[in-house]
Design a protein that fits this description.
mainly alpha, 7 helices
């Protein structure tokens, strides 16, 4: 275990250690059920603060997800700690109020936490989709860019350069209707690459023209859907 990991565990245990020392020194084990219920719920709330980061969906914006979930759990812990202390200090004979109040708090917390998890999942899926679509455009652009200087014919070079500019400036956000066009674009790239390798000027110009038509059709579809 690293030094940082060890110190993190010690930091996490400080509250548990201090709280339990104060709890047992101040009143011992002979407590009514209402107090023990508060004791358990306080520990549960603190444990939720510690394990909440495990619920965050892994993505490029995990830090934002962690913060929102951690904030919810921290608020729950603070409220539960205050409510729990009230029952511990007041020492009510009946456990009903202690149990009901803290179950309500737990239910409210669970609802808010689940709502945040669902919202974060949706956001993470959208982020992942956006990143994949941006990566697609970057990938196609970089592939075309590598072909620009290879043809011996200057006109062919300029046509490929114009194709690169068109793809590079195309919208990254895609849609279902554009997916078949994007698949055709990938096939057309391989055809263009083959023409460039053989340095067949006529084939390069023809394949580039077809490629441009596909990109323009994709852009048209996206303009209608966005």
């Amino acid at each position: 275990m690293s030094k940082k990991g060890f110190l993190t565990i010690i930091l996490d245990l400080i509250f548990i250690i201090v709280f339990n020392i104060v709890f047992f020194v101040s009143g011992g084990f002979d407590r009514p059920l209402s107090v023990w219920i508060a004791y358990i719920f306080i520990h549960l709330a603190y444990i939720m603060v510690l394990i909440t980061p495990l619920f965050a969906k892994k993505s490029s914006v995990s830090a934002i997800f962690n913060f929102s979930l951690y904030y919810v759990s921290t608020i729950y812990f603070v409220i539960e700690f205050i409510v729990g202390l009230i029952f511990i200090i007041s020492v009510p004979d009946s456990y009903v109020a202690s149990l009901v109040v803290q179950l309500i708090l737990l239910g409210l917390y669970g609802g808010v936490l689940i709502a945040n998890l669902l919202a974060n999942d949706t956001t993470a899926e959208n982020v992942a989709r956006d990143e994949a679509e941006i990566a697609y455009i970057k990938s196609v652009s970089s592939q075309i860019k590598m072909l620009m200087a290879k043809p011996s014919d200057k006109k062919a070079q300029k046509e490929i350069e114009a194709l690169y500019d068109l793809v590079h400036t195309s919208p990254s956000r895609s849609c279902g209707e554009a997916k078949p066009i994007e698949a055709q674009m990938q096939v057309k790239y391989y055809e263009l690459e083959g023409a460039v390798k053989s340095d067949d000027t006529d084939a390069i110009l023809a394949k580039t023209k077809d490629f441009v038509a596909l990109v323009e059709e994709r852009n048209r579809i996206l303009s209608l859907n966005n």
